[in-house]
Amino acid sequence: GPSAYIAFTKGAVDGLLDIAAGVWDDKRIMPLDDEYRRRILEANARLAQNGLRVLGVGFRLLDEVPTAVQQGNLDALEQDLILVGMVGMMDPARPEVRDAVQTCKDAGIHVKMITGDHPATAAAIARELGITGQGDGDERAVTGQELDRMSDEDLARALETTAVFARVAPEHKLRIVKLLQQDGEIVAMTGDGVNDAPALKQAEIGVAMGITGTDVSKEAADMVLLDDNFATIVAAVREGRVVYANIRKFIRYLLTGNIGEIIAMLVSPFLGMPLALLPLQILWINLLTDGLPALALGVEPAESDVMRQPPRSPSESILGRGMGWQIGFSGALLGLLSLGVGYWEWRAGNPHWQTMVFTTLTFGQMAAVLSLRSESESFLRLGIRRNPSLLGAVALTVVLQLAVTYVPFLQKLFETRPLTLGELLLCVGVGIIMLVGVEVEKLLFRRHEAPAQPVPA
């Protein structure tokens, strides 16, 4: 007669086969022999190789609820199942993910897929997203069972070429993170489950899912991804690189101007000249000429190659990659050009020489800041309109500098003298020389700089 109870089970096909005793075939229950097992596994593999996530479905008829189940042991139900069939589900990745993966590769970031899916499914999805399949490593998925058999040395070697890990347990994730870190890598790990918390905590950057993530994973993570989108992580990396690059530009501009002022002030007495700048003029340069353009550099848009540069070592100095030499060169050029103008005019007996040093320093810094917006691209390629804030800061600084030079009450305050058109054009011309000098320096330094060693993240 009909059974009183029926229990349904779903899960990985290979897992259900281990606890199944029969197969539902043509409205009959048939014994699960080797032939049925082979056919089921082949069908499972075909679906998985097409990138489908496959679930097996089984049931068990019961006349009564087993005593073990009544005592809370639900595993007692999942025995002697009848396998009904399997379901292949398409779970397509978001269209922007493939581009995000390629961006990571261009940026020197190694993307590894660690999943609980079937190895064939994981390998197919990895090929679809461009994680594998471009001749850059082993396309095969390493399973959790294989990981258990590997020593740390073997796994460390496998991590160098393998990008896909399937049927893994949470402890495997933690082990992978630790081995990558031992190899000097900077690791970002994503996760959403309770069991992902140890790996999220261990990674330098643990990223929890904001929509599907558990509270435990969010607490363990360093950041929470509100839209659960891998492309958002890549966008965050890009933004971080832009911020870091702009901090370097800010520092380089300020130090270039300061070195220029110091050279002009220190060298002028050795040439028999009075001080090249007066205290209030120095204060003006430090507050206005340095301040406004430097702040505008902080909102400079990303350079075109920002995501084609390899990651930098966390131990690298902010003045690394030759920036210290660049600052010294640019600052010395600015100081010597300004001092050269002042010395020439002072020797000629021109009473305007100090104002010309003051104005040349300002115009030289304005010219330099237009070039310092990039460490590699030329001023001509950058153009002048992509950062309106900087353009406005430069224009305002020039106008205020002209006001200090030509407005009578400001002349008295800053002890400046009105320059003739020829003298003003000379200051502008020296500023252009400064721009050309910085451009030449960029070209030379880019040509001779050793490529940075990537530190994959």
Description:
With 457 residues, the protein is an alpha/beta fold. The protein folds into three domains: 5-89, Calcium-transporting ATPase, cytoplasmic domain N (3-Layer(aba) Sandwich); 95-233, 3-Layer(aba) Sandwich (Rossmann fold), CATH 3.40.50; 242-448, Up-down Bundle (Calcium-transporting ATPase, transmembrane domain). Helices cover 55% and strands 12% of the residues. It is built from 19 helices and eleven strands. It has helices spanning 13-19, 34-49, 67-70, 95-106, 119-129, 144-149, 152-159, 170-182, 197-202, 215-220, 230-270, 279-289, 291-297, 323-347, 353-371, 379-382, 388-406, 408-414, 421-448, and strands spanning 5-11, 20-25, 28-31, 53-62, 81-89, 113-114, 142-143, 164-166, 188-191, 205-209, 223-225. It has a five-stranded mixed beta sheet. Strands 6-8-7 form a three-stranded parallel beta sheet. A three-stranded parallel beta sheet has the order 9-10-11. A hairpin with a 2-residue loop joins β2 (20-25) and β3. α11 (230-270) runs antiparallel to α13. It is rod-shaped, with a radius of gyration of 34 Å. 34% of the residues are buried. Mean pLDDT is 88; it is low at 450-457.
